[in-house]
Amino acid sequence: MKRIIFILTAAIFIASCGTQKKVSQLSNASDKMASILPDVKIPKASVSQIAADVAFLASDDLKGRDTGSEGILAAAKYLQNRLHEIGVQPYKGDFFDDFDAKGARAFNVVGMLPGTDGVLKNEIVVIGAHYDHIGFMKAVAGDSLANGANDNATGTASVLAIAQALKQIDFNRRTVVFALFSAEEKGLLGSKHLAKRMKAEKENVVAMLNFEMTGTPMVGREYIAYITGHDKSNMATVFNEANKDRVVTGKLAKAADFNLFMRSDNYPFYNEFQVPSQTFSTFDFTNFKYYHQPGDEITEVSAPHMAAVVDAVMPGIMAVINNERLKMMGNE
Ligand SMILES: [Zn+2]
Questions:
Q1: Confidence band (pLDDT; 50, 70, 90) for 36?
Q2: What spacing in Å lies between the alpha carbon of 149 and ligand 1's midpoint?
Q3: CA dihedral defined by 158, 161, 163, 166, rounded to 10 degrees?
């Protein structure tokens, strides 16, 4: 299986190299989205690449990617290679952002695409997902390995797909940081570390978009993914207005009931920077039975659905990294 994955990866990389597209006209930061988006052709996410990334991360070989384990080190190296082959730069010279996770050595894997606008490049949009999981647990039907396919190989593969698309489009006036976090399952430790580090280094983070559990379609909704903390910013409006083809996001009442806004890696960025920082997810509490169970395997998630989520959010991402400055609003 691994050999197939690497062959696939190489083929896709070669295919993407020749298709750089420059946008002819730069517009001012104050211009409306409409002035820029029609000129940009957004490539479709590759279903096979997303499937390959999830398959590697959720394979038994990686033993559930528990922080501090050998399995998660293999995952981190794989992600470093993927960001490198996509053509993303290491963040401040190093893809590995090391930290101590309650005594375990842990690493976020972080890349960046520097902004192209002389002024806006100083504003950073962080796009992230956690890649760690919980390792071994109490056996269910003889299986004690929690593979963490939906939680959160899916979000991780989505961030890679977004990085691939943005590198190919080659038009981001703001700087984009791709952050793949470790030790989320230990209490958001990776995202806390990076958010504090960026704050200490006086980085100007203007928004954080996080991806969690995007492996299964929502049931009975017109939108494809909800965002946590829906009413805290105008993010939902911006994403829905940017995509002319479909409703991207909406408000899931249960997300507020369970306070999901505070329960993933968006939250430390909100805490440090007080800017719109929210999580996209399609886990609606009814469409996936294996949350933190050994049954969270690749057979239970859909790569075409994940690709559709990426395709749906890309126009909004283009708006956020080029034109629209997201705003905080009321409370959830
Ligand atoms: Zn998760």
A1: low
A2: 10
A3: -120
Contact 115, 136 (CB under 8 A): no
Q: Could you list the residue range(s) of the whole structural domain that residue 198 is in? A: 2-11+36-322
Q: How far is the CA of 151 from the centre of ligand 1 (A)?
A: 5
Instruction: Say if residue 52 is exposed, middle or buried (CB neighbours under 10 Å; 0-12, 13-18, 19+).
Output: buried
Tell me, in angstroms, the distance from the centre of ligand 1 to residue 282's CA: 12
Question: What is the predicted pLDDT for the residue at 24?
Answer: 34
Q: How far is the CA of 108 from the centre of ligand 1 (A)?
A: 15
Number of domains in the chain: 1
Domain containing residue 182: CATH number:
3.40.630.10
Give the distance (Å) from ligand 1 centre to CA of residue 239. Answer: 22
Whether 331 is covered by a domain: the verdict is no
Distance 36 CA to ligand 1 centre (A): 34
Q: Is residue 141 part of a domain?
A: yes
Query: Ligand 1 mean position to 14 CA, how many Å?
Result: 32
Q: How far is the CA of 152 from the centre of ligand 1 (A)?
A: 5
pTM: 0.89
The verdict on residue 30 lying in a domain is no
How far, in Å, from the CA of 292 to the mean position of ligand 1? Answer: 9
Q: 65-106 pLDDT, tens per residue?
A: 999 999 999 999 999 999 999 999 999 999 999 999 999 999
In a domain, 278, yes or no: yes
- How confident is residue 25, by pLDDT bands cut at 50, 70 and 90? very low
98: exposed, middle or buried (Cβ count in 10 Å: 0-12, 13-18, 19+): exposed
pLDDT tens readout for residues 107-157: 999 999 999 999 999 999 999 999 999 999 898 889 999 999 999 999 999
- The rounded Å distance from CA 238 to ligand 1 centre is 25
Dist. CA 266–CA 176, nearest whole Å:
15
The pair of three-digit structure tokens given for residue 86, joined into one six-digit string:
């996509």
What is the CA(274)–ligand 1 centre distance, in A?
22
